[in-house]
Automatic annotation (TrEMBL):
SUPFAM superfamilies: Cytochrome P450. Residues 1-28 form the signal peptide. Heme binds at C455. Its cofactor is heme. Belongs to the cytochrome P450 family. Pfam families: p450 (PF00067). GO terms for biological process: lipid metabolic process. This is Cytochrome P450. Keywords: Heme, Iron, Metal-binding, Monooxygenase, Oxidoreductase, Signal. GO terms for molecular function: heme binding; iron ion binding; monooxygenase activity; oxidoreductase activity, acting on paired donors, with incorporation or reduction of molecular oxygen.
Length: 509
């Protein structure tokens, strides 16, 4: 009882600054360059007061402190942070000395629903699982299947829905549609079953909402003392109660899709033609993955990675392009030779761009990269320090420290990207003749990770985004509705808090 009372008392002390900040309305959009170091509580109140706007807060502080700063929480909480967006430090963390900077046990505890998956593990287990996943995703048959799946979903679901919205002059939430589209795109090659979230009747998207909850609560947990959120979890209150419900929904979704997959398998038969086409088959046939909990964790981690990153990025792409009609014109000019051939071949409706047709389009890829520079899908990465070290910037870090790498801030640093760092300019990615991409090292552009943990699904994600953007922009004009408040949702994924309301207009060819 004494230890429980102590925990509760500690939590109340730690949460008091949050309550006072909210009550006093002290959520500042212009915080001091360095967080205020309060007595006893140190910098914890400053972090909590700006949790709603954490990415911009980090950017302001990092810009004023030379791309690096240290922060401390109350004594005994273990809150010792080193926050950086310095490319030299990032190369050290992700490549040069990456074994000294694991995700750590607390990260695994925060994302316990994905426990045991590559998303949460380090060291040799991560290397083995990564090799397995790399082998699966590099299968020519599976890649062809995923390309066909994307192309068919765009032609048979996305564009007809867009055409209806355009013909009825109906505004809609682009972020929700991209979330539905990518949920189906993630699940179909995984289970060989299309959940059908992107359909005319717009069915409930409980599993997708549960995924959002996991990422929103995770940000709260990442920035709070572990003892604080663990106590809230024990009390089954607030965000932890929501998280528990989300876990239940996601596990039920996995079971439902597994059952539907079994029905489909029985219907088509288990012949050699069907075997191994979906991702799940590769793991069900592997004795190393015969644990149901591990398999469920891996499925959920794949769904989160495949849906969240691409869905969020597509929304920001449409938002940025609506503000830059000249960029849209250049994209259409690049697409024009492909579209002309299709028209000559007798295409008399909407033009669909095949994944292999957009693969070599340089400017379109530059548009994707420029969006990811300013709006990285995962804006913040978290590591821990295994042993004392010295960063290339000269800062010392100590065993047990938490390191935050702010991708969102990195894209907004003049010292990294130049004086026009805040401008949306795809040309920065092009060679002088515009025919190829400039080389930018991954420790400067971290959207697809870096070093031994480089994103395994990068090429698939780029293929999906190119197919959606090319087919949409060629057939429609996209208008963002005025009067919206465009701001990031407090989450580990950079989604828009209020969505993105748009209207479409069918282009006259």
């Amino acid at each position: 009882m004494l230890s429980q009372e102590l925990l509760i008392s500690t939590a109340l002390v730690l949460l008091l600054p949050y309550y006072l900040c909210l009550r006093a309305g002290c959520r500042s959009n212009n915080p001091a360059v360095i967080p205020t170091n309060w007595p006893i509580l140190h910098m914890f109140p400053s972090f909590v007061a700006n949790l709603h706007n954490l990415q911009d807060y980090f950017t302001l502080v990092l810009a004023g402190s030379g791309h690096n700063f240290r922060a401390h929480g109350p004594p005994g909480t273990g809150m010792r942070f080193f926050v950086t967006c310095d490319p030299a430090n990032i190369r050290h963390i992700f490549t040069t000395n990456y074994t000294n900077f694991p995700k750590g046990a607390e990260f695994a505890a925060i994302f316990d629903i994905m426990g045991g998956s590559i998303f949460t593990i380090d060291g040799e287990p991560a290397r083995r699982q990564r090799a397995k996943i790399k082998g699966v995703l590099s299968s020519p048959r599976l890649v062809a299947r995923m390309e066909a799946c994307c192309r068919n979903k765009v032609e048979n679901s996305l564009l007809p829905l867009f055409a209806h919205m355009a013909s009825t002059d109906t505004s809609f939430n682009m972020q929700e549609l991209m979330s539905r589209f990518m949920f189906d795109m993630a699940a179909t090659p995984l289970f060989d079953v299309d959940p059908g979230l992107l359909s005319w009747d717009m069915p409930p998207m409980d599993a997708a909402v549960a995924m959002d909850t996991v990422m929103e609560v995770a940000l709260f947990q990442v920035m709070m003392p572990a003892s604080c959120w663990r106590l809230i979890r024990w009390l089954n209150m607030g965000p932890e109660r929501k998280l528990k419900a989300a876990h239940t929904v996601l596990c039920a979704f996995v079971m439902e899709m597994m059952d539907r997959r079994k029905v489909n398998t029985c219907r088509v038969g288990n012949d050699e033609e069907q075997e191994g086409i979906d991702i799940l088959s590769s793991f069900l046939n592997d004795p190393n993955y015969d644990d149901d909990d591990l398999l469920c964790a891996m499925i959920i981690s794949y769904m989160l990675a495949a849906r969240d990153t691409v869905g969020a990025t597509l929304t920001w792409i449409f938002y940025n392009l609506a503000q830059h009609p000249k960029v849209v014109s250049i994209i259409r000019k690049e697409l024009s030779p492909i579209a002309s051939r299709k028209v000559a071949d007798g295409v008399d409706s909407m033009v669909i761009f095949e994944p292999n047709e957009t693969k070599s389009l340089v400017y379109l890829r530059a548009v994707l990269y420029e969006t990811l520079r300013l709006h990285p899908a995962a804006p913040l990465k978290r590591k821990v320090v295994a042993a004392d070290d010295i960063m290339p910037s000269g800062r010392e870090v100590h065993a047990g420290d938490t390191i935050f790498i702010s991708l969102h801030s990195m894209g907004r640093m003049e010292g990294i990207w130049g004086k026009d760092c805040l401008n949306y300019n795809p040309d920065r990615w092009l060679s002088e003749d515009g025919n190829k991409l400039r080389y930018v090292p991954s420790h400067k552009f971290l959207a697809f990770n870096s070093g031994p943990r480089m994103c395994l699904g990068k090429d698939i994600a780029v293929m999906q985004m190119k197919t959606v953007i090319a087919s949409t922009l060629w057939n429609f004009d996209v208008e963002v509705m005025e009067g919206q408040s465009i701001q990031a949702k407090p989450s580990c994924i950079l989604e828009m808090k209020n969505g993105l309301m748009v209207k479409l207009k069918k282009r006259e060819m």
